[in-house]
Amino acid sequence: MNTGRLFVISGPSGAGKGTICSRILEQDNVRLSISMTTRTPRDGEVHGKSYYFVSKEEFQKTIEEKGFLEYAEVYGNFYGTPKMEVMGLLKSGTDVVLEIDIQGALQIKKSYPEAVLIYILPPSMAELRKRITERGTETEESLNRRMGETLNELSYIHEYDYCVINDELQKAIQRVKAIMTAEHSRISEDIHKIVEQYKEEL
Amino acid sequence: MNTGRLFVISGPSGAGKGTICSRILEQDNVRLSISMTTRTPRDGEVHGKSYYFVSKEEFQKTIEEKGFLEYAEVYGNFYGTPKMEVMGLLKSGTDVVLEIDIQGALQIKKSYPEAVLIYILPPSMAELRKRITERGTETEESLNRRMGETLNELSYIHEYDYCVINDELQKAIQRVKAIMTAEHSRISEDIHKIVEQYKEEL
Predict the structure, then answer these.
(1) Mapping DSSP to helix (H, G, I), strand (E, B) and coil, where does residue A45 land?
(2) In chain B, domain spans
């Protein structure tokens, strides 16, 4: 049986990566990785579903045991991707999707080089600004800050494997699905095992 | 506009690469590269469609002008992939498919590293033997030689980008199509140009 693949999806807020991820997760044999965090659960958040909510001590212990594929501190709270769960899913043949920022994505590529990094881009910066403005949740200042952060992120795009432009949602979803299908045909350990079988057959 | 991608498809006779190629070529914006050869046209073969039929002198001149992406001599005849035509198609945004053996594929990867190499495998060596036997065109000896050649080719499979197992034709076609779609989202010069545009926008 083939092992699963790890897909890391990043992109600026407003590029549509949340919608794309949720549509991808409707497929069989794909699961979202659940992060571990030290922050307090918000109303409606469920342990083991939204996050694994743990104490700072437990988080620290997992760091020391090298139990994270990546982790970061954000405003005093820790967030991390537990290695054991992801590896278990991959080994069982399930693809794992991680929605994470660029710093986390680059950490993952280091700790698990087979990870496939996909960056979701809006069709233009003007369109990104429009989409965020329409949400009505940002001040002019925070909007400008976001746009600056996006430009800064784009300097790291060459570290990614793929970049999907979300000009039309359906097309963007199809592109990400095609990447997932294609990656299962990529030359990998699985293929080498199959080739060994072929050699033994003769 | 995005440039086209060059897809090189190889695999043992009987793996089904011919059928897969012809189905891929039904898509818009995909073209088969036409080879140049010094061999005599067979009945029904059309210059500029089956092959470009040329003299040995003309072929030699094209070699000297570094006009081939790859070429080889087979039983005294020369066969080659003309660079100019392929590059013209790619530049115009058309994908180009090349059905070629492993030696040719590796030459292409050297002269055009952006080429995407896909190897089509039968589901097993037993199935390959069965498919070739059913054609009834091979003696036991030539069948065994073919099987040996296939095993030898498999030692080079790590040089390829993808390996598609043709267990069910429809699935294999979908996998190759997914690879073609995915490769258009791969981080490339096109993406870098888009990112530059985004930066200028702000």
Answers:
(1) coil
(2) 6-201
ipTM score of complex: 0.89
Nearest partner of B62 among B41, B39, B35, judged by Cα: B35
Q: What residues of A are in contact with residue B187 (Cβ under 8 Å)?
A: 157-158, 160-163
The answer to whether the Cβ–Cβ distance between B178 and A181 falls below 8 Å is yes
Q: Most A CBs within 10 Å: which of B187, B188, B190, as the mutation test of the A interface?
A: B187
Q: How many residues does chain A have?
A: 202
Verify whether the Cβ–Cβ distance B182 to A187 is below 8 Å: no
Kindly report, residue by residue over B5-58, the tens digit of the pLDDT. 999 999 988 889 999 999 999 999 999 999 999 999 999 999 998 899 999 999
Best of B198, B200, B201 to disrupt the A interface by mutation (most A CBs within 10 Å)?
A: B198
CATH architecture of A6-201: 3-Layer(aba) Sandwich (3.40)
pTM of the full structure: 0.91
* pLDDT digits 0-9 by tens, A31-58: 999 999 999 999 999 999 889 999 999 9
Strands A95-99 and A30-32: parallel
d(CA B118, CA B99): 10
